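Record type: ASSEMBLY
Status: queued
Input:
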Amino acid sequence: MSGPPAADGASANGVSSNGVSADGASSNGTSAHGGSQGLRPYALRCDHRTTPLGIDESTPLLGWRLVSERRGDDPTAYRVRVAERPEDLDEGGRPLWDTGRVEDPGAIGVLYAGPALTARTRYHWRLSVWPAGPSAPAEETSWFETAFTGTPDWRASWIGHDPHPLAVMDAPTEGAHALDGHGLAPCPLLRRTFTASNVTRARLYVSARGLYEIRLGGVRVGDAELAPGWTDYTRRIQYQTYDVTALLREGENVLAATLADGWWSGFVGFEPRRAGAHYGAFPQLLAELHLTGADGRTTVIATDSAWRTGTGAVRHADLLMGECHDLRHAADGWELPGYDDSGWTPALVTDADHGLLVASVDEPVRAMAELPARSVTRTGEAVHVVDFGQNLAGRVRLRVAALPGGARVTVRHAEALDAAGRPYTANLRTAAATDVLIGDGREHTVFEPGFTYHGFRYAEISGVPGLRAADVVAVALHSDTPWAGAFDCSDPEINRLHTCVEWGQRSNFVSVPTDCPQRDERLGWLADAQVFLPTAALNADVAAFFTKWLRDVEDARTPEGGFTNVAPRLTGVADEGAPGWGDAGVIIPWHLYRTYGDPRFLSRALPGMRAWIDLIHRHNPDLVWRRKVGPHFADWLAPGTPTPRDVVATAYFAHSARLTARAAEVLGERDTAHTYHRLADDIRAVFTDRFVISDGETLSIEGDTQTGYLLALAFGLLPEDRAPAAARRLAELVESAGPALLTGFLGVALAAPVLDTYGRADLAHALLRRAEVPSWLFPLRHGATTIWERWDGWTPDAGFRAPSMNSFNHYALGSIGEWLHRGVAGLDQHPDSTGYRRLRVRPRPGALTHANSRYLSARGTAEVRWERRDDTFSLRVRVPPGADAEVYVPTDEPGSVRESGGDPADRDHLTLLRAAPGHTVYRVASGTYHFTATAPGPAAPATAFAPATALAPAPAEHAPAPLTRVGSPEESTP
Ligand code: RAM
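Status: finished
Output:
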């Protein structure tokens, strides 16, 4: 067993040496033994993924979730065995690594600490979990497989198509003005014929500088989109591993790859950067196919000069500009044996540098949902506008009957329509977002681009007379983060808001967390990710996704050691981190650690955290962060009076210093912890000294803005006895504004949680219900299906805001999603807990009549469902094994509380902690509980609220996603 020791050595907070997480989809291991209703593990995971194929981590985390139908049925001990042969996991077998029985009731994972793992090997592992008492352990089995594990044994070379003959593009695509002269070239095709016989196991390891799609025997390998994903290709290039055993034929086979520019050599970020300005000039492929026979011998087919290259129908493909298929150039059958490639040229070998290759650590982007056309409107001669009813990131799949040679179908994408019902594309800036199909007379073509994606709700399709809704579908693409949360309540508009928040996440978690999917930007802005992470991690299991992106954040660090504003880093985009932006390098690992319990989030990040704080300190020895390290975005896009920059910056300086100290504490680095705690104390004192004026009763923070108070309260910057006065002033400012928020990206994320903490959940509810600008419901009432970048991106009076920066799919202001779960439904992790070892259940009903939150936590399913009917408050709680919970039952009459119909005093696994005005608090062990009590007096609603609806059906067990991938069921109950 390994892993950094916990500061307190105990697992009360889930911070044990094993206090790590698991989950996502159910493992495909053997079924659990043990009592059917009793404690059992499920969802076995390796490095936060289910049965990953091709890892290169030397100490992977083996994690699990727990379930039991009994109360207090908690684990007491676990054992993990790892072996190459499954039979070595059985009693009497000889496992490679065996933890033996480890007494650790908090464990939900263990870092592998056995003998060094061998490259390209499958390892099976078995988990045993003991309940209390004499029962036999419950067991579950899973596997993981290694790829290239640090051994420099790659044989493949990087190969491509000589770019020079390709550099002249076809006639510029209609609407793709920005393409002129930028040299987008046809997508190279690369093929290699080989023979195979008696192969028992075949693995394909693939990467690209650019994007690849690879086929074996004409069949597409895997379902990754936009692979190998975006990284700073000068620092790190990911590869993927596929099991292709089933695709091989005896005799002749063909490996066939299509390459595209992607982030490597296409348009990335802002105009006027040229395509290929950031990383490379033309795309290249690297692949190795390992064929193992029954005799155990392995043959390798690698990319080299024996591959042949040509071009086909894809005349260009670019993430921002779009894709063009000209069927007159189609190389039919090129991916199959027997194709005559004599007219093709030998592949150009560029180099054999393997130094930057890493196995991908997250799930790839996949086609995650298909949305049918809601309506098709004819707007001109063979021109139709299709409405998919949902703003999303992805592309259109179109069925075209017969397209005469040279005839053109054009698909333009837009988030909105203008007053005339035409696509509104001004806000895409230079992103042409236009896909083109050119016919060659063949019948029945299905056109779906493969190497681009767009942010859109509407598609204008020209060139298909009589287009029918059945001929077109929108395919939503995003990184495959297993959906983990579900929320609903009695107010349909708040439910719609939650759906908008979810779609903002789905549209912008595309290999990296982007700001927006539509315009010429789509960058991994750090602050956006920081403010949205708490919401994102309640919607989905983002552990693997952020493991990958934190590498990008790390790779992007400046020579001085600072974090940047965007990651992956792009030359030319304001490099050095602004206050609140660079701080994401500290805040994100901390939040991930608390959510998933994996201490590696901290151990990997701590050096960068320290360097960041030291850098700010060096530039600002008086502890007021005013000498900027990079640019300053203040409280980005806040309406009204700006919060003074020094206030924003210094507050973040203090907060990041504090979190750095706490990270060091968790990792057992006591001196470091001490140093940064002291620094945080000093910055806090300076903050009060410089920015706070207080006379006992009242308090004012320089600038007197909502965000100023929010930062000071959320980050604990005020003396304890002064905080209530600050909260009062904050409430006054919110009330006098509407009540409304005058906050930007940074402030908005803190608003509801802080108001709630200081007893003003009523104001948070009022903000939720507000429907005038600025508010969440204003966009919703004007047709929004995702969160807008600006509160007033469109208004009836002014129409669209300036198109230079007006996205309708920006998740930052969607950070309210966190409070819907944690506040409204009341499903929260206790502030002292890690990895959901202790929950805090505390509903904030406001004027609602019910709310539900279900969350697949690191430990297992947690759930809260409450309902207020007449004068009875009903509260159902589910606490996963190994956890406990503080449950606040809302009532003014402690004597009225019942649990499952009986007196709580008679119940085991339940202790009364205190009765306070408004609620009675219990500590409960794991299990499910049903409290009822006389409801407290109706909360005074600050604004009108939607009429109550009937109790909504509870979200389906373990299947919370509003959308599921066809063929990819979400986790099912073990
Ligand atoms: C904008 C982006 C992003 C924001 C930065 C400061 O261009 O939309 O959301 O973080 O600026």
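Annotation: The radius of gyration is 28 Å.
Annotation: The chain has five domains: 31-146, 151-362, 366-479, 485-825, 838-949.
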